[in-house]
Specification:
Low-confidence stretches of chain A: none
Distance between the termini of chain A: 55 Å
Helix content of chain B: 25-40%
Mean pLDDT of chain A: 90
CATH class of chain B: Alpha Beta
Oligomer: heterodimer
Largest sheet of chain A: 4 strands, mixed
Helix content of chain A: 40-55%
Mean pLDDT of chain B: 91
Structural class of chain A: alpha+beta
Bound molecules: adenosine-5'-triphosphate, magnesium ion
Strand order of the largest sheet of chain B: 3-4-2-1-5-6
Structural class of chain B: alpha+beta
CATH topology of chain B: Heat Shock Protein 90
Chain lengths: 124, 184
C-alpha cells in the first residue's frame, strides 16, 4: 500500500537525477488538451507520454496546451527542439506517442508519416 | 464522445484552470443509500457574469478564439439530462465558480467511472502551480488527496516529475479502491 512517506525516497531519487543532468531538457513535447483533444483521445496519449518518459528518462518535458485550432486533427502532439524547430504530429494514439518519443526524442528522427505536413500534402 | 465520468470532470477542471484558479476542489460522492453520484468542482478562478452562467451549457458559448463553440459544459449538461440528474453552476466574478452535477447512480445510460487517478495526474501535469484537492466518498467513507501536502513533502522537487505523477495516479486509485471495499 502506498503512503505519502514514499515521497521522501522519490524526492531523493529525483534530486540525484537533476544533479546528474546538466542544464534543462532538449525537447518539449506538448499535447493539446482542450475539449476537442480530450474527446478525440488525448487523455490516454498524455498518459502514455508521461509513463514512457518516466520509464526511459527521455530528454524531454511533457506539457499541455489548449486548443491548437486544428480540431479535426486531434489528438495533436507537438515537439519543440532546442533550436526552435517544431514538428506537429496528428491523430496520435498511445502507440504512436511511444514511437514519437523513441524515434524523435531518443534518436532525433522526425516520423514524417505522422506529421500534419504529410496529411496536407498527401491530401492534394 | 466522453467515455466516462472522469473525462467529463476533467473538462470541468480544465475550465477552472483556464479561469486562472489557484485552488480547485473536486468531489466525487457516491451514495448507495440515496442512489446518486454527485460530482463537484469548486474553484477560485475569475468567475463568470450571470449572463455567462445562464448561457454556459449552450455549446455556442465560449471565450475561445480558435473555434466558435465551447463543448465542455454542454457535454456535462447532456449527461445530467440523460441520467435523471441536474446541473448547477454557481459563479461570482472575481470570486470563483462551483459546478455541481448530480446523476442517478444506477441509471442505465450512465457511463463508467473511469480513471480518477489519471484525471488528477493530468490536471497536476497541466497546472503545477495550482493546488488541487480531491475527495472521493461512498456514503460516509472518504478518501482525501491534497497536492499541497505532496508539495510540502517534495520540497525542491517538482510535483510534475513524471515518476511523481505516476505515483500520484496509483496512490489515488488505491485510495478509491479502499473506500469502495469498505462500502461493500
Ligand atoms: N470555472 C469557470 N470559471 C470561469 N469561466 C468559466 C468556467 N467554466 C466555464 N467558463 C466560461 O464558460 C465558457 C464555456 O465553457 P466550455 O467548457 O463549455 O467551453 P470552452 O472551455 O470555451 O471550450 P472547450 O471546453 O470546448 O475547450 C468558457 O469559455 C468560459 O468563458
Ligand atoms: Mg472547456
Amino acid at each position: 500500500m502506498k503512503s505519502l512517506e514514499d515521497l521522501k525516497k522519490m524526492r531523493e531519487a529525483a534530486l540525484n537525477k537533476v544533479q546528474m543532468r546538466e542544464g534543462g531538457k532538449d525537447y518539449r513535447v506538448v499535447v493539446g488538451m482542450a475539449t476537442c483533444g480530450i474527446a478525440a483521445g488525448a487523455r490516454p496519449v498524455l498518459n502514455r507520454l508521461v509513463e514512457e518518459t518516466a520509464a526511459n528518462d527521455y530528454n524531454c518535458v511533457v506539457t499541455q496546451t489548449g486548443c491548437i485550432g486544428m480540431c479535426i486533427y486531434e489528438p495533436i502532439v507537438e515537439v519543440f527542439g532546442k533550436e526552435g524547430e517544431h514538428t506537429t504530429y496528428i491523430h496520435v494514439d498511445p502507440d504512436k506517442a511511444a514511437r514519437i518519443l523513441e524515434e524523435h526524442i531518443k534518436n532525433g528522427h522526425v516520423i514524417e508519416e505522422y506529421t500534419v505536413d504529410a496529411a496536407v500534402n498527401g491530401g492534394k | 464522445m466522453m467515455p466516462d465520468l472522469a473525462t467529463h470532470l476533467l473538462e470541468i477542471i480544465q475550465n477552472s484552470i483556464a479561469a486562472g484558479a489557484r485552488n480547485v476542489c473536486i468531489r466525487v460522492l457516491e451514495s448507495i443509500v440515496s442512489n446518486t453520484i454527485v460530482m463537484e468542482v469548486e474553484d477560485d478562478g475569475r468567475g463568470m457574469s450571470e449572463e455567462t452562467v445562464r448561457s454556459v451549457t449552450d455549446p455556442f458559448t465560449t471565450s475561445r478564439t480558435t473555434r466558435k463553440v465551447g463543448l465542455g459544459t454542454s457535454f456535462l449538461k447532456g449527461l445530467t439530462d440523460a441520467c435523471d440528474g441536474s446541473l448547477s453552476i454557481e459563479s461570482e466574478l472575481g470570486k470563483g465558480t462551483t459546478v455541481t452535477a448530480k446523476v442517478r447512480r444506477d441509471h442505465i445510460d450512465l457511463p463508467g467511472m473511469g480513471d480518477f487517478g489519471e484525471m488528477i495526474m493530468i490536471c497536476i501535469q497541466g497546472a503545477e502551480e495550482c493546488d488541487i484537492r480531491f475527495e472521493y466518498g461512498v456514503d460516509e467513507n472518504r478518501f482525501l488527496f491534497d497536492t499541497a501536502e505532496v508539495k510540502e513533502m517534495l520540497e525542491g522537487v517538482s510535483i510534475a516529475e513524471p515518476e511523481i505523477l505516476i505515483w500520484i495516479r496509483g496512490y489515488i486509485n488505491e485510495g478509491i479502491e479502499r473506500v469502495k471495499e469498505i462500502g461493500l
